[in-house]
Amino acid sequence: MILAKVVGHVVATQKCDELRGSNLLMITALDDDQQPLKDKTYVAVDSVGAGINDIVLAEAYFALNKDRYKAMSVVAIVEKVFRDR
Q1: 85 part of a folded domain
Q2: Helix, strand, or coil (residue 12)
Q3: 41-78 burial, b for 16+ CB within 10 Å, e for fewer?
Q4: β-strands 36-46, 71-77: how paired?
Q5: Does the pLDDT at position 14 exceed 80?
Q6: What is the DSSP string of 22-78?
Q7: What is the pTM assigned to this prediction?
Q8: What total number of domains does the chain contain?
Q9: Which of 69, 39, 40, 75 is CA-nearest to residue 55?
Q10: Are 61 and 69 a contacting pair, CB within 8 Å?
Q11: How confident is residue 66, by pLDDT bands cut at 50, 70 and 90?
């Protein structure tokens, strides 16, 4: 799982059957200080109703067709991150 920030929405006029009705979000992975990681932007299926600038927990999993696709899903909206320094 990764901690990420929602940076945009993806609009697709045609989707495979497994994604019909799903919202797609553009997310950027965050480092330990919650700063965006360069070149770590992904598209993820939103399963929790996240919005722009939300910090989310996302996971990669094989869901659509295990032989052909690897999908990423937003599974939680993060309220606060506690860290022991």
Answers
A1: no
A2: coil
A3: eeebbbeeebeeebbbbbeeeeeeeeeeeebbbbbeee
A4: parallel
A5: yes
A6: -EEEEEEEE-TTSPEEEEEEEEEEESS---TT-EEEEEEE--S-TTT--EEEEEEE-
A7: 0.84
A8: 1
A9: 75
A10: no
A11: low
Expressed as residue numbers, the domain containing 14 is 2-77
pLDDT higher than threshold 60 for residue 29: yes
Residue type, 61: Y
Question: Which residue do the tokens 């927990």 mark?
Answer: 57
More confident of the two residues 18 and 29? 29
Q: Are 42 and 58 in contact (CB under 8 A)?
A: yes
Q: What's the token pair of residue 3?
A: 């901690």
Give me the residue label for tokens 């799903």.
22
Report the CATH number that the domain containing residue 59 is assigned in CATH.
2.40.50.220
Residue 52, CA atoms < 13 Å, CB-side half-sphere: 4
26 in a structural domain = yes
Dihedral (Cα; 27, 32, 34, 37), 10-degree rounding: -50
